[in-house]
Amino acid sequence: MTDRVKVYFDGGCRPNPGKMEYAYVIAGVAHAELDAGIGSSMDSEWLALIAALKGAQALGLTDFVLLGDSVAVIDMANGRTKCRGDSVPHLAAFRALFADGAMPNLRYIKRTQNLAGIALERARAR
């Protein structure tokens, strides 16, 4: 039996709204995008989630969990809260990635536990 792969994601925006950035970490390998366009912190969290899912799919992973610290994005993606405004197209893009399959596991973690947030800070420092 193999362990479920943890896929961490985190987005940021400075100022808000402003220049977006995001990172995701799969099996200890960090991927960061420091110039993801202009938008809000919510937009950057969605971009991070979508990039993380695409990254997991590109690696052919089937048993993984997406872990992030944005309660709002996770609740909308999981269908626990209504998706409105600028988040609607992001939710559609997220769902399109698994339209023919099962919804991926998606869970909230504390910011201090989010390895993608740490990776994003390190990428900014370079």
Automatic annotation (TrEMBL):
Pfam assignment, any one: RVT_3
Q: Which domain of life is it from?
A: Bacteria
Name all RNase H type-1 domain ranges: 39-115
Q: Which InterPro entries match?
A: RNaseH-like_sf, RNaseH_domain, RNaseH_sf
Q: What is this protein called?
A: RNase H type-1 domain-containing protein
Report the source organism.
Sphingomonas glacialis
